[in-house]
């Protein structure tokens, strides 16, 4: 099974005609009767994407989930798009309680096309998502009928959301709190925008949690053993963890279609840890580029103190795999579409209209990250630096509609007006600016007649316009100019790659593209086309969905080699029926202390400020107070550090420094017994010299000498640098000093310890068993 939401960008009409993204429309016909001859319906689509969760499986469920009485995505308005204008009126003034369903052209069209491209090879699939319209006020039986028809005829399951839930989740949290930092924007947010820390921000975060939980519950209801779940994009980042709690053995993949920023940006989010933990509920996390994957791994290391490896993130529950899976296009369908008569006719019209001119093409959503303004500034510089091209070139810029209010449109209009005033003539317009959605036929025609395509994204997940442009250039092989901040950049080495902030560099790239020889054009295009034709939409879906169960199985086998988790029922029955019970509790102090410091944790206990530990230590005290229980705390900490725990409960025994010392339970607790036969610590001086060397190179780390060993603690140092230094230090000691002294190195969580080779927790446990073997414990 797989789950996804769609991208926010409004694409041209999809070249896939399958109705996998249905929208619900009011209609005079019954819900089950679709009237294809009916006039164009009033669309109930909000100007935002629908979120979809889909999964493939052998059979659909026999039951349907209980439905809520509302499906909503904002204020209940009807929207009808005419150019860039939205006309609205109250839906329920005129709409009857009968409906029909039609395809919805909004959303992540690239993802929809990719999944459709392999629909005959993946068995059955089920999309789970919110509807692209508000259904607030609809009777529950109407919602039930809609849900039945969506599942029966479209393999879709709706998640019914209230208007405030959709608004808080999408408009406030997704668009204001998440989308901007994920695209490297940390601009000031006005009050009420949902920024974390404000009252509205808290509400938006709670709505985000609630919507993600509703998606997880809906998916879990329909899940069957063997299903593969595919969760998509930043709208549903908490769903993997919720699903893991509901279906522990589920095969879950999560794919992020937009960029993942550096840790220095992501750490600014107040909810950063919860979001990362939510993603880490998956077996596999996919990204468009290696850079995004590397940023995620480093962020998990720095913010969660988890170890990152080339394969993924090592969590308490096993390895979460990460991978790079660049999305592509369905080349076969695109080629079929671009050879249709309507497209060929439009190509002829455009060539006639722009006779004698070189054509530069740009097509972007006019928001802050697509770089439309930077593109126009570079074009202005090009005309200034190369006056010989004035009157001989035209930039056709298509700016797709955006529902987000921004001042970028005014800035873009100002630059276009300035270019026209500086360089335009009665016979020549330097820029043809189309601030509207164009048909897919018109779009393909523009890509075909272009002499160069100009993509100047400031941040972009992938940008499939570049793929489509290469596909449309099979006859002319004209060059592509692409920003180094687009996801495609790393894969398109044969493109003219530019920094969109460097205006002169982009201007020079335009000149190079227009003056490039035919031989060089063909060579560059051939390399680009090989990539596009190999890394298709089909390859993207098959690779990712095939990898999910493989990673799940690999992680399951890894976990099966370790101690299995005990079932609650079995533990309870064994506990109740046992006459004597021995508990050996292995204590990693930092797993209990949010500060990561044992001293801080013990200070909190001593001074009564340990809010995070209260429940844990109350449970420890109750467990040890039962006369049938024998409780020992086993730890790497020193005797003095562990003795503080006696303030929590006087009925526990202690085992310090990896089993070197044991304090058996007695009424006095005044006797520590040594488990070591050899107390020669001549090796300490040499080890301290090595550890001091690495401490000097690792700011934030500290070396602590203990009675039997030496600890190098780097919990407060930079995670990536210190982890690398710890491995170097371990190799240094193991390859030199360990050959001369009876020591070995223990590499733990954010710490490295050097201890005598004859330290053995097993000997300590044997001593404890022998001590308590004789009958009942005395109190």
Automatic annotation (TrEMBL):
UniProt-annotated stretches for the region Disordered: 1-80
- Any one Pfam family match given in the protein's UniProt record, by short name: Glyco_transf_20
Q: Which GO terms describe its biological process?
A: trehalose biosynthetic process
Which InterPro entries does this one have?
Glyco_trans_20, HAD-like_sf, Trehalose_PPase
Which superkingdom?
Eukaryota
Compositional bias of kind Polar residues: 8-20
What is a single cellular component term in the Gene Ontology annotation? alpha,alpha-trehalose-phosphate synthase complex (UDP-forming)
UniProt-recorded Gene Ontology molecular function terms:
alpha,alpha-trehalose-phosphate synthase (UDP-forming) activity; trehalose-phosphatase activity
What is the protein named? Uncharacterized protein
Question: Which taxonomic lineage does the organism of this UniProt entry have?
Answer: Eukaryota, Fungi, Fungi incertae sedis, Chytridiomycota, Chytridiomycota incertae sedis
